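User: Fold this; tokens only.

Assistant: Input:
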Amino acid sequence: MLRPWLPLAALAALCAAAFAFAANQASSPALHPLASTGTWHAIGPAPVRGDPFAGNVSGRVTSIAVAPGGTIYAGAASGGVWSSANGGKIWRPLTDSQPDLAIGALALDPRNPQVIYAATGENDDCGDCFYSDGVLRSENAGKSWQLLGRSTFYGHYLSSILVDPQQPQRLYVAGDLGVVRSNDGGVHWHTVLREPTTDILFAPGRPQVLFAGVMGVGVEESLNGGNTWQRLSGGLPNRRSLIGRISLAIAPSDPKVMYAAYAGLRRNCQDCLLGLYATHDAGRTWTKLKVKDYFREPGTPVAAQGDYDNVLAVSPANPNVLFAGGVDLLATANGGKTWTDLVQNDYLHTDQHALVFANGNLYIGNDGGVYELTPAGRLLDLNTNLSITQVYQGVAVSPHGMRILAGFQDNGTALYHSATGRWTSEIDGDGAYNLILPGKHGALLGEVDGQLQRSSDRGARWRTPKLPGHLAGPMASDPIAPGDVLLGEANVWQSTNGGRRWVRRTRVRDAGPLGAIAVAPSNPEVVYAGWQNGLLEMSQNGGRSWRDIGPAAWPTTCPPGPGAVPDLNITGISVSQADPYRVFVALAYSYPQSLPDCPFILETPSANASWPAWVNIAGNLPSFAVNDVLAGPSGLYAALGRGVFYSAGADSTWRPLGKGLPNVEVTGLTQAPRGGLVAATYGRGVWVLPAHRDGRLRAQAGERLLH
């Protein structure tokens, strides 16, 4: 699939720092006290069933490690570390309570496989790559963890971790900060190579010899455990400005054989394959292999993604058996003379990130989850109960709570069926916002790859409506006349017939894409639209005319670092159930990702005033950006970079909402029937907090979750 894109409503929580801003919240709605004792329930996907190209899919897996006894460990891009002791039949999460679920690399102690290292921070050069909080270490196969090196790795992106087989206390971590070494098991760290490094390897049997793939440089070698380095040449690219991500592989059966895959700029094609190179003399001379550009998305002659998915693996038994992963997965049994494409020929998801040989099998991690290739050539889907889907904001719930429609990173749009508890694939691609329209329209609206799709037969068939160009963005429907739909991209568009035809309602320039749109429940003529550059407008006639109601100056408390303050983006808008002019707006800083987060929620009780007065009510929210805000019938809720919080009264105090939710990015909140809540998480699927029959959030489990 194409390089993943992330709506800014979900992008905004990619950083972290400290912020607490006391504000007057005397008019905030009260929340029933049972809210804090309720239990969140995971409803998947685990996995999405029936993807047209890859069968059952879960989510992006960046790293895999296999213990000698056969236990498989999988690191998810933003869903934490999982393990399976029975070959992938059953998985269990190991790190849901840890401070960072973005896993960039995994490693086991060769002398004691009970010791696991998980480097947090995904170094895949993507808009939804979450940064590092440090390296997690477990000494009991994942039952408990400690965080190492936070001061060293915080805010960075990590690609590899090595444990010295002769001195297990010596660790190497590579990433955008270079190569960092610890000689005491992760207590102290110091940098031994300062350029951004995308891969590091030991020479088999000689851990003092290391090879590193360095962006902008090439392949570097160290003969003394990382103390000094020298660049290898002998046929490798030497134009440093062209060199991007490099992946490496060494043949265990013949350490003189090594392969290097270079991504970079070629013929004005960013992230294309510069070349796949082989050496048979331990790196002294290299030969460029003949192979197609497997970093390119089919049908896109210019765009490629070699900086996103670029991985190699050599068979332990045969140095001529090589697997090369990018968008596709290529295999050769003769050192590169001929190739087979496993994505094109088999039922395998695109976008490869991890390749690991163990017990004679090849384990594959990609944007669809975990797969296994047996020596007989059989490809197995191991996504049995792996719930690591990255869910975008804009989850839709049907009026009776029987169905949920959600969009996922690189795994399309899927429909949840309450009766069976299963998710079925509806549209392939990168998902986004969704609506389920009740009544005579009875339509499903979904978005994939930046294009609106519509189904009028409960998802059996999907068609692209007649649109003036590509339309995709936040959507909202009239609660009284559900066929009246608003959609925002660079402008606001309106459909009065359930999404069949659309008319433009705004003419905004240079505001970027829309970040949020909301219709007042008590008066559907009152509509709010917020753009990602901070422009906030209101319509009092159903979208026919608009005026600016944003603050004269957005808050700048908690600046994200020295120098210029990034723009504040509008990530969510919600309107009081009873008052159409009482509005809540969630804001978040934009890039760069490694800067700290700050929570911002602005409230005005008088959006209809000539110039509304806004108050920041973020109060004591923790130091994560706010992705969404929801004014429900029984309280005010906020979706943060870590968890869901609620406001419980007039003292500007926020508390975590419910129990059992993993420590994961929450991208959006949706009100379910009778007071329940649905949370979209970016890495752990969709979660539901049910409600009592009277609409209050409930703690009891065992009943139907949504109705």
